[in-house]
Amino acid sequence: QVQLVESGGGLVQAGGSLRLSCAASGSIFSINTMGWYRQAPGKQRELVTAITSGGSTNYAASVKGRFTISRDNAKNTVYLQMNSLKPEDTAVYYCNAQGQGPHYGLNFWGKGTLVTVSS
Fold first, then answer.
1. C-alpha–C-alpha distance, residues 86 and 63, integer Å
2. Comparing C-alpha atoms, which of 91, 88, 94 is closest to residue 112?
3. Closest Cα to residue 34, out of 6, 62, 64?
4. What share of the chain is helix, strand, coil (3-state, %, to 5)?
5. Which tens digits make up the pLDDT trace of 70-90?
6. Taking a C-beta distance cutoff of 8 angstroms, is the pair 37, 93 a contact?
7. Closest by alpha carbon to 77, among 39, 20, 37?
8. How far is residue 30's CA from residue 84's CA, in Å, rounded to a whole number?
9. pLDDT tens digits, residue range 40-77?
């Protein structure tokens, strides 16, 4: 089993920055791609960014150039650096991990951390 715990959310003004962290524990050898999703009030959960174990990344168009995902495999942690935040970035941000090997086909989720951006 894999457990994911997010941290770093909070309240910031537009134009500010936050750095989110997601710490993985448990059967971490079974983790492949990790990423961040978000869900704003009244909207569906959407993919923000993802990173493979090899470091390849993808970003949603809405955050590209402002957000940066990184991964420290030694620390079993993935980060999301968010700069130039906008009110529309307000959402609960969820860490996600894709299973491999014995956990192939499974997705693991954190419980989320709230990011609020004021105008």
1. 10
2. 94
3. 6
4. 10, 55, 35
5. 999 888 899 999 999 999 999
6. yes
7. 20
8. 34
9. 999 999 999 999 988 999 999 999 999 999 999 888 89
